[in-house]
């Protein structure tokens, strides 16, 4: 008999989490013909209800609105144009909400539908509203079922994928763990459909993802693909939230001892709402390229960014807008609120403070308004 392998600290913390966000993808809830798969939805609800009955609070972030609208509308495949996608989402979301309500009713649990647009997370006043509603639902013992508000979200304001939405919601509700449930049992070092790929059990830092190819397209009914799950896991982990990625078919184990799939360890600590918004939710209006000295000052020593360390400026922004800070190789190393308009900076960059007139000696991005991403 072999000894049981000790669970990693990440898995233990996920198994012990009190407040969880569980994201489930379209391919796990719908048939290939574009209708809801009631049996698979019920199996997911069984697993979530068991965890709720054990005293935990669970937010479900559910995709599937567009996919579930395909068959009822008599369409042959997932629509490509926005108007038809929105029509499909309108029909499918209704079916989805009804199915969750009926399925959770088997456990005498009430569900609350929460449809969010990117604005609800990007604008700080909206962020607080969404936060308040979700918290209230949870304290009332309701299971919130969240999706993007696809019927009104236009191209510019779309989250784009529910993996990212789930990571943002995890922070919003102060979740102790995020579960990403898909149609694949784990992250592999390459697309498993090609064969020969190996499972990655634990990701403890960015280095564990070196050489991992997650670029393969998704299932065809969803949008995200594996790359968006890895990115969502990174967003959650840097905000201090561990992530478990596995298949919806393993939801019972995932919500039980968490000894399945790929576990991503939290790499950062929980950020304040403002810093999280700066790092992940706010839209950037410009880019500042830094020299190596400025990168070291900003990222390692957590100093303000001065004009002397900037080599180039891109974008049309005003003082108060969010910009990305790039290292000399073009990697975004930080984000922050810029103190100058784009038009003011070309005359200042590369010059040290004592060369500048007194009114232009203030920091370009103050340390309090800056979040390092690496
Ligand atoms: N490195 C990888 N590891 C695991 N799956 C991968 C990888 N690269 C691509 N994939 C594919 O990504 C798919 C999951 O993405 P997607 O279909 O968008 O899921 P969902 O609908 O659950 O959001 C898997 O079915 C798998 O074929
Ligand atoms: N909001 C969309 C989901 C888009 C999406 O991200 O889908 P998926 O990749 O399956 O998680 C819908 O409900 O159809």
TrEMBL record:
Residues that, per the record, bind ATP: 23, 182-183, 223-229
Organism: Saccharopolyspora gloriosae
First-level EC class: transferase
EC number(s) reported in the record: 2.7.2.11
Example GO biological process: L-proline biosynthetic process
InterPro entries, A to Z: AceGlu_kinase-like_sf (IPR036393), Asp/Glu/Uridylate_kinase (IPR001048), G5K_ProB (IPR041739), Glu/AcGlu_kinase (IPR001057), Glu_5kinase (IPR011529), Glu_5kinase/COase_Synthase (IPR005715), Glutamate_5-kinase_CS (IPR019797), PUA (IPR002478)
Transmembrane parts of this sequence: none
Official protein name in the record: Glutamate 5-kinase
Function in brief: Catalyzes the transfer of a phosphate group to glutamate to form L-glutamate 5-phosphate.
Catalyses which reaction(s): L-glutamate + ATP = L-glutamyl 5-phosphate + ADP
Family annotation (SUPFAM superfamilies): Carbamate kinase-like, PUA domain-like
Residues in PUA domain copies: 286-365
CC terms in the record's Gene Ontology section: cytosol
UniProt GO molecular function: ATP binding; glutamate 5-kinase activity; RNA binding
Gene: proB
Primary localisation category: cytoplasm
Record's keyword annotation contains Oxidoreductase: no
Pathway: Amino-acid biosynthesis; L-proline biosynthesis; L-glutamate 5-semialdehyde from L-glutamate: step 1/2
